[in-house]
């Protein structure tokens, strides 16, 4: 639907990585995992991993935008992450403030628009303020959408969507017979991203092979790539490598390849 425009100086790196510039996915989602283990391996407190993780968010955002990716969805804080020690939760809640106060000018220069999914009302006021300011400051950017999942959980997102649709049915605004996948998607937190499509590729770093309640509806047909690299070590070259794995996959969306259905005996 969209033509991906690769930034000039990224072209050489794309060639070196043997990536096909025509097959850069529109929407990439990442479960950024391994911050704690990265820090522990270095005998540092866990929050040092999150701090380095934030730096990597900047690097990968720029790399993704330079590649012409249309949406980068990052799982920054799940509804389950509240179970962590207070000190760690407080640190994580402070990250959007740190990140946006440093990087919003660069996001604007790169034409990147910030979007957030998740229940923002449960976040500390300062975090909400940082998020809302970043959304407002980048609202006119027309390039990549940097979509942060903050206090996000997919089951709760789906439940809220079901409830909202049920209310619309009750109020006579929605005919149950007309609820199809497209209409239902409009009740999800990703509704505004619909023009870009669901994630083509979901990457999880750190060697874990789980989805952890991230975009369950939206990744129905995504390619999944699991890499052993811890998020704080993740570099643009790792992204290129994961994109190469994606490009070698054969996406059939439940169908078959053209010609595959031909009866060769005929
Ligand atoms: C998972 O690693 C990571 C998180 C729960 C937090 C991710 C957050 C960032 C990378 C920074 C986000 C930046 C902004 C701007 C909001 P883990 O702690 O579960 O690692 P472990 O599995 O090794 O313990």
From TrEMBL:
How the cofactor is bound: the record states: Binds 2 magnesium ions per subunit.
A GO biological-process term: polyprenol biosynthetic process
Question: Which residues catalyse the reaction?
Answer: 33, 81 (proton acceptor)
Sites where the protein binds substrate: 34-38, 46, 50, 78-80, 82, 84, 204, 210-212
Q: Which UniProt keywords apply?
A: Magnesium, Metal-binding, Transferase
Annotated signal peptide: none
The answer to keyword Transport applying to this record is no
PROSITE patterns named in the record: UPP_SYNTHASE
Q: Which GO terms describe its molecular function?
A: ditrans,polycis-undecaprenyl-diphosphate synthase [(2E,6E)-farnesyl-diphosphate specific] activity; magnesium ion binding; manganese ion binding
What's one GO-annotated cellular component? cytosol
| Cofactor(s) for this UniProt protein | Mg(2+)
Q: Enumerate the InterPro entries for this protein.
A: UPP_synth-like (IPR001441), UPP_synth-like_CS (IPR018520), UPP_synth-like_sf (IPR036424)
Q: Which SUPFAM superfamilies match?
A: Undecaprenyl diphosphate synthase
Its domain of life?
Bacteria
What Pfam families does UniProt report for this protein, alphabetically?
Prenyltransf
Binding positions for Mg(2+) per the UniProt entry: 33, 223
Q: What is its EC number?
A: 2.5.1.-
Describe the subunit structure: Homodimer.
Query: Which purpose does this protein serve, as stated in its record?
Result: Catalyzes the condensation of isopentenyl diphosphate (IPP) with allylic pyrophosphates generating different type of terpenoids.
- Similarity remark: Belongs to the UPP synthase family.
Identification of the protein by name: Isoprenyl transferase
